[in-house]
User: Fold this.
Amino acid sequence: MFQENTARLASTIDGRALAATLRTSVHASSVKLIARGIEPCLAIILVGDDPASEAYATSLQREGARCAVRVQRSLLPGHASSSELIAALEMLGGDPLVHGIILQQPLPAHLSIEEIIAAMPVNKDVDAASPTSQGRLSGQLGNGFIPATPLAVMALLRHTKGWPLRGRRVAVVGKSAVVGLPVALLLLQENATVTVTHKDTIDLGRHLRDAEVVISATGVPGLIKGDMIAPGAVVIDVGTTFVDGVLKGDIDSASVAPVASELTPVPGGVGPLTNVALMQNVLRAAEATL
Assistant:
C-alpha cells in the first residue's frame, strides 16, 4: 500500500494537461499523414435530432479540428429503419476516405442496437463498440481498438504513482460494457490484481479499502466516500452526472481528497482525454491504410 496522505489533500491528476500533450502528438502525426495524401477522417452517424447527441458530435468536430482529423456527420431521420442504418454503416465502411465510424447512441426506441452494431466495419470501429471488437479485447488479442474512455483511464494511470500496475490491487466500480468491463480487461493485461464491483455490491467499502487503485464508473453521484478508500490510494473518477446543472462524479471528493494520494477531478479528469483518445484511434486506423 502507498504511504498515507497525512500532509495535504490528494494531488490532482490533471486530465486537461495530459490531453493537451496527447493532442499535440496526434496533430503532428496527422499532419505527416496528410502530407502523404491521407487525411484521417471520422464519420459520426446520428439518427434523429437528440440534443445531447448533437452536442457530442459538435464536441468531436472541435476536437478533430485541433487534432487535424476531419470529422463529418451522417444524418438519418428519426424514423429510419434498421436496414437503412445498416446500409449507412456499409456505405461508410466501403468509403476509402473514411477511416473511423461511430454510431451515436441512444438510438430511437424502434431500433435494436444489438442488431445494428454487429454491422459495424471492424477495421473502422474506432470506439470498439461491435461484438467483434469487444471479443478481441476480452481475448487479449492485441490487434483491435480500445474504447476511448477506457483508453483515457489507462493514459491517466500511466501518470500516477500506481504505475506500473503489475501486482497492484485495483478495484473497478462499474461493470458496463462501455467502461467498467473493458477497463478491468485492460488492467488484467497490465498484470494487476483486479476486483470488479458495482453500485449494488454489498458492503462496497470492504472491497475498496483493500485496493491501492480505485476506478469508478457508475454514474451515481457521490457514491464513494472517504471512509471507503484506503489511505494513499490512487482514485480515478469516470462518473459524470448533472445534478442541478452541475457536473458531479462518483467520488465524494470532499471526503476522499484528505485520504487518497491522487484523485481525478470532475470535470477535468478523464473527460478531456476521451475525445483525444478517440482521435488517436482514428489516426491509427488511417495509418493502417498505408
About this structure: Residues 148-271 form a domain with the Rossmann fold fold (CATH 3.40.50.720). The chain has a mean pLDDT of 94.
